[in-house]
Design goal:
Elements: H1 7-19, E1 26-29, E2 32-35, H2 48-55, E3 78-82, H3 88-95, E4 100-105, H4 108-120, E5 127-131, E6 144-150, E7 154-156, H5 165-168, E8 171-173, H6 176-184, E9 189-200, H7 205-215, E10 217-229, E11 232-243
Parallel strand pairs: 3-4, 3-6, 4-5, 6-9, 7-8
Antiparallel strand pairs: 1-2, 9-11, 10-11
Helix pairs in contact: 6-7
Length: 255
């Protein structure tokens, strides 16, 4: 495997993000200051978090009057974010009007980081940070208006075992996590709710589509953008996940 989809490239990006001498204890994004703990994905070294905010209509730095209404924008109800990291997306959603936010991450340091930033920005009452491997620590009775994951979209070989929690933010061996997400996320929706997946061309789109087909899921492109990442141009996509029988959502299907 070579080029932008090479999982070894992403593993090196993970390593560099942890060891660089200028890694800060806090950073600025969306006009706000955020704590950054060791071993937690750093949004300043990747465009993914900023793109996710834009996709969700949350990118305005001082907008606390509700999401923007752009395609893919969050409704002001409840949000489950998978892979919360520092909590930027979850907390910005709460600041923008989401009444209930659950921020889940498999990395215990990320859970602490999200909780610290929720306290820092005064939304601890609306943002609950939980340690969970996707949905395994969530009560089945909880339902959400939006389930969102800015995923670890780089495909690693099925036999690869991440050496650190930080690597899990960059690669998904065999797309096992993506399969579980596609299978399980729709079951956590409130009536009329939406499952959204942030994916990119660093990942294997045909492989994701095959998994979706096997799970009985349809993937529709809600928004897309192309950004320069080092020597590569990378396409980012916001995908809506629906049952395969539901074909009325969007005309553009991931291929």
């Amino acid at each position: 495997m070579t080029g932008v989809r090479d999982y070894r490239l992403s593993l090196e990006r993970s390593r560099q993000a942890l060891v660089r001498t200028d890694r800060p204890a806090a950073f600025t994004m969306c006009g706000r200051e955020w704590d950054l703990l060791p071993e937690v994905f750093a949004p300043i070294y990747s465009p993914a978090t900023g793109i996710a905010l834009d996709f969700l209509g949350l990118a305005e730095p001082s907008a606390e009057t509700g999401p923007s209404g752009a395609p893919g924008a969050l409704p002001p109800g409840s949000l489950l974010e998978i892979g919360s990291g520092t909590g930027v997306v979850a907390i910005t959603a709460a600041l923008a009007g989401c009444a209930r936010v659950v921020a889940a991450d498999i990395n215990p340091a990320a859970v602490l980081n999200t909780a610290a930033n929720a306290a820092r920005h005064g939304v601890s009452g609306r943002v609950r940070a939980v340690r969970s491997d996707l949905f395994d620590r969530l009560g089945g009775e909880e339902k959400f208006d939006t389930v969102f994951w800015s995923s670890n979209y780089v495909l690693a070989p099925p036999e690869y075992r991440p050496r650190t929690m930080h690597e899990r933010a960059y690669v998904d061996p065999g797309y096992a996590a993506h399969r579980r997400f596609l299978e399980g996320a729709p079951g956590l929706l409130a009536p009329g709710g939406t499952v959204l997946l942030h994916f990119s061309s660093r990942g294997d789109v045909p492989a994701l589509r095959r998994i979706a087909d096997g799970c009985g899921r349809r993937l529709d492109v809600v928004r897309r953008t192309v950004v320069r990442e080092g020597e590569y141009e990378v396409e980012h996509m916001l995908l809506e996940v629906t049952p395969a029988a539901d074909s009325a959502r969007c005309p553009e299907v991931v291929r």
